[in-house]
Design goal:
Helix content: 25-40%
Strand content: 15-25%
Number of helices: 14
Low-confidence stretches: 375-390, 393-408
Structural class: alpha/beta
Mean pLDDT: 86
Radius of gyration: 21 Å
Distance between the termini: 52 Å
């Protein structure tokens, strides 16, 4: 039987970040991924500058071979109402394609990837470790397989009574006719919120690719909500009348609203397996990366002592780093208000340029002041210093980043 020090189950940003954090440690790490790479991953596909900081990624270097669409503002509003625009002088986020991003991070980690190999069996050993798929012995296992992670299922984490966000989305390469009829600006993603405040939809153009989707806390009738949202966009002339392909679904849990254990005897859960998506925005990539890096740190500090008590340090570190990314006191207060009052406050917020910028975008979507990252004293609203991006190209559809990516 083969043996290693750690097995990571899942090849997304959480798993690859954990693997990258264990680089040069002397530990033998193996990563399992049930899909073959490069894989298509259902995801809106945008990252904040904090992601680049955490992973020490050079944006210009990444963009030479991969899609990295600068985001310099947003169109926001209620579905069916006239939106307002918020613009920035420099990029505040970037659009990525998950098939490229996940492959890049896995390759960068240097960890052997067994893609196309699912976790089918996980058994405890008398000595305290695990037997993976009946053929691989490991001292610790890291569950990074998303909401339905088999490691989380094996340790009986959650499932059954969880309050799940359900989403459907599609990303496709537009043909010339679709491109000519698409009015969504690549640098200005569009966010449209449901009138019952249970979710939002988005339109995001990444060069010649268009990403459309909608997520809701209430899963009932999701397909109908998605269809109605897309029809609203068509009627407004924002997207082409014909859309290529079918929408795919996925689910995730929100940070602070999940009871899943983060760790236990010889295991850790990271990313969506642990239920860490940011409330209100639903972003999962930054918390996935943070949790992967902190899981690696916990493993290294444990020095082979993978008891539940030793690994509980991971939860403490994660709460410290996520800081106020969960619901604030004001947001919890809103939960007790009657629906009619909440709807009125929500409508007024989305109609206000100031509140949209300060609260909706900079706190809830860009995490300014709510995330204890490396530069807690001042999380960048502009691009990081190593990005090579000096100004926003919001009105130039042939920016150099699109040119480098082969997008005309």
């Amino acid at each position: 039987m083969d043996a290693c020090d750690a097995v990571i189950v899942g090849g997304g940003p959480a798993g690859s970040s954990c693997a990258w954090g264990l680089r040069n440690s002397g530990l033998r790490v193996v990563m399992l991924e049930r899909q073959k790479f490069p894989r298509d991953k259902v995801c809106g596909g945008w990252i904040t500058p904090q992601v680049l900081d955490e992973l020490e990624l050079d944006a210009a270097e990444y963009a030479r071979q991969n899609t990295l669409q600068p985001i310099c503002g947003f169109r926001t509003g209620l579905i069916g109402d006239s939106p307002i625009e918020t613009r920035y002088d420099t990029p505040v986020s970037y659009g990525i394609r998950r098939s490229e991003f996940d492959r890049y991070l896995v390759e960068r980690s240097g960890v052997p990837l067994r893609d196309g190999e699912a976790l089918t069996a996980l058994e405890r050993e008398d000595g305290g470790g695990w037997i993976v798929n009946g053929e691989l012995r490991t001292r610790i296992v890291i569950g990074a397989g998303g909401h339905f992670c088999p490691v989380a299922r094996s340790v009986k984490a959650g499932f059954g009574s969880e309050s799940v966000i359900a989403a459907q989305e599609i990303e496709f390469l537009m043909d010339p006719g679709q491109r000519s009829r698409c009015r969504v600006e690549p640098e200005i993603p569009e966010l449209y919120f449901c009138r019952d405040m249970k979710g939002y939809g988005w339109c995001f153009r990444k060069g010649d690719y268009l990403n459309l989707g909608l997520g809701r806390l209430d899963r009932s009738g999701l397909s109908a909500h998605v269809a109605a949202f897309l029809e609203t966009l068509r009627e407004a002339g924002r997207i082409p009348a014909n859309i290529t392909g079918e929408a795919a679904g996925h689910a995730y849990l929100l940070y602070g609203m999940s009871d899943r254990p983060l760790s236990g005897e010889a295991y850790l859960l990271v990313g969506d397996a642990a239920g860490l998506a940011f409330p209100l925005s639903g972003e999962g990539i930054l918390p996935a990366i943070l949790s992967g890096l902190l899981a690696a740190r916990t493993i290294l500090e444990a020095r082979g002592r993978y008891t539940a008590a030793e690994l509980s340090r991971y939860g403490t570190l994660l709460r410290e780093r996520l800081g106020g990314a969960g619901r604030s006191g004001f947001e919890r207060f809103l939960g007790f208000l009657p629906l009619g009052i909440k709807a009125l406050l929500w409508r007024r917020l989305l109609a206000s340029h100031r509140q949209t910028r300060r609260l909706l975008l900079e706190r809830w979507f860009l995490h300014r002041g709510s995330y204890a990252g490396p530069n807690r004293a001042g999380i960048p609203v502009s691009a990081p210093a190593n990005s090579g991006i000096e100004s926003c190209t919001a009105h130039n559809p042939s920016s150099r980043f699109q040119h480098q990516n082969g997008q005309k």
